[in-house]
């Protein structure tokens, strides 16, 4: 896989480095009266990683001829939203996970209340980052705020989380499971595509944005299918978190309906649909490779 995805990994690493620097700049503020909240935010936000969502924002913008300078504030904003969701997802009232990315979860490091507030600060801060992005026109910033709010709110990620909690107490029908993950996981991926398009000057109702959004939707659901698979079969040290958490919470997952091989096959089908969606868009080869990489990942 390393040889197959060599160019992709190079671009992902470069993007991750630029994203990390941009996020560090956003998080450089300090006030001695509430410095702890900055520390808690930095702990989860500046932990490195491949920065999958910022890559998707920036790559969709690049494919359409936009600049990294224009898309980076939007990439940072959505990464802040993603990070807040992980902090809250690990809390005892949600998934109650003590480990995230191979280190103590935010609430284990800083306490429940501080972790809750760190997530809140990242959520609200994401919209400030967009509002302050003078590289984008006011019209684009307003549209970007709407895209992010829809992707993260009750019609997106939070709606999916509500359904996820219901799935701990009752078995969800397969159609409901698809809806759950189309919201909880894929909605934020779709937001990445739409934000990248906006940064490049393509409105959300343009052909290019619609195709890239369809790509992101399928990639997002496939990503979740593989998450469910990895929760059962991955190497815990590589995955960086406790295995079997879904089963412990009696969650409805794709493995409720498929065995591991069948689930992988389903994810392959979604990946194929994602690739088809961008096949007519020039310079989308890295997006095709990215979809395949997400399918093959080990963590």
Question: Would you write up a description of this structure?
Answer:
The chain is mainly α. The protein has a single domain (6-296), classed as Farnesyl Diphosphate Synthase, CATH 1.10.600. It has helices at residues 6-26, 35-45, 52-63, 68-89, 106-110, 112-131, 138-152, 157-166, 174-184, 186-199, 207-233, 236-239, 245-248, 260-277, 285-296, and strands at 99-100, 103-104. A two-stranded antiparallel ribbon has the order 1-2. The longest helix is centred in the last third of the chain and has 27 residues, at 207-233. It starts with 5 loop residues before the first helix and ends with a helix.
The name CATH uses for the topology is: Farnesyl Diphosphate Synthase
Number of spatially distinct domains: 1
Q: Structural class given helices, strands, pairing?
A: mainly alpha
Rounded to the nearest angstrom, the distance between the terminal CA atoms is: 14 Å
**Helix fraction bin:** 55-70%
Q: Record the strand order, biggest sheet.
A: 1-2
What is the CATH level 1 assignment? Mainly Alpha
Order of helices and strands: HHHHEEHHHHHHHHHHH
Question: What portion of residues belong to β-strands?
Answer: under 5%
- The appropriate CATH architecture is Orthogonal Bundle
Globally, the shape reads: globular
Number of strands: 2
Alpha carbon gyration radius: 18 Å
- Count every helix, treating DSSP H or I runs of 4 or more residues as helices: 15
The main pleated sheet reads as: 2 strands, antiparallel
Looking at this structure, what is the CATH superfamily? Farnesyl Diphosphate Synthase
- Average pLDDT over all residues: 91
Low-pLDDT windows of residues: none
